[in-house]
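Recap from last week: sequence in, structure out.
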Amino acid sequence: MLTHKTCDPRLLPLGNPDFSSIRDAKMVYVDKTELIEKIASQTTPIFFSRPRRFGKSLLINTLHNLFANGLEKFHNLDIENNWHDKTYQVVHFDFSRMASKNAQDLRFSLSAKIIDEFCFLDTIAQTDSQKMQYPDVILDEISKKLTNNSIVLLIDEYDAPLTHHIDDPDELNNITKILNDFYATIKQYTGKYRFIFITGVTRTSHVSLFSAFNNLLDLGTDEEFNALLGFTHDDILNYFDVYVENAAKILQISKNTVYQSLEHYYDGFQFAVNTSETVYNPWSILSFLKLPKNGFKNYWFESGGTPSLLMQYLKINDNFDFLEYNKRNFYIDSSELTRKYEITDIPRNILLYQAGYFTLRAEQDGTVRLVLPNIEVEESLFKIYLTENNLNPSRELRQKMLKLSTAIDSKNLATIINIFNNILNECVSSTSNIFHDERSIRDILYAALIQIPALQKIKERETVKGRSDLELITHKTCMIMELKRTPTAQTAPDALQKAIDQMQRNRYGMLFSQTHSLYRVAMVISTQDRALLPEFCQEIV
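Predicted structure tokens:
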């Protein structure tokens, strides 16, 4: 993304790269400048949606600097060949900075922001406190003084005040009225604006944004702009290969393994139906490359990956059943992706898609499959599940779990089984039916092991011949598990043999045979005993 200050990541120092400048919007996507220019050439108001931490604000900052300063700060970059517009006064509203305010405070804050943004007008006089309660009145007075096509209007996170108050109907109604009047006034004076660009997470009919701008151009699901924000695989190869190599040295694994792990953890997002191109979460990629010694952590969740909108919605609607582990795929009609919903009545699957927990995969029959994009997102869902059901591991168990890496490196199967059984004992409710499904048991183990960031976890790694259940990878060892369920201990020998045969037949783990010590284990879980059976867990040589 081109912004007011740019730097080529290939020129940053190795060892401990400083990516703070990149996170402040100084990254260059030289192959996306034409898309930026295409957006900026529009005279129709534009709406662009993405989940949090995907660079919406970065894009707005880019547009802000180009429209305000032209190419002044973009010399010797590809945008010089594509940008031909003049400069304008830019008015920039970031509603995420006002999200937590109640209706009364929002009125005064928005009024003050309007006055501040239009301070270039010499005719703006001091506004009395009575008018400060009516941002639309102030905006109306100011708009009358503007000349046509003279202003660029940028609105970031338009829905933040709404989603923040979704659990307070009265406050939500009051805030909705304020925003309705604000957007209606902008609509009234659309001719004054050369360019209007609005970002957000949701498409809500609760404010007049979409109804006021009846010609609003929604590019959020347009295939041409699918990869505008985020990194493609080619982006990482072109701009970050030297950092991937640096990470491989620090983690003492092959560069190819780093690339594969980045893909498993952070890739998979797709925002348009008519495309097969996926993108990586940019925040997570940059966070990993900045400090690769921390491993493949859940950076998105740690930076607030559970948006208040999602949590408040789920609490209101008692909808945590979406985290049942046997539910993997959801199907919707493609028209649902751009439909506008009341903020308190967004369908669960659509909300999860808008928030970044689901992503798109098009089917041949015209339907759209919503899937979990990657490991990082799935871990985030598991964390929500454990937290909201009070099933998080205790402090004592977390201390035991920290010994798991050592146990894997020493191939201490007894310790590994003991830790796993402690997890199942603490993190599964007494009424749960997960012991009837080995995949659900595996997922509980996987979710709990998120507490160990230094341990890389890969679930259902796909190979030519099948998918392994669970892989736990330390710096030295790759432990590959094949789980089989048995109703009782009497049928455990057959279950163990099935696990052994499957692992040998599919040659699980051959990917790591050159880079890690390989530790393959077949494990049997008893539905009756609700635990792994130590006498039926066996290393496979």
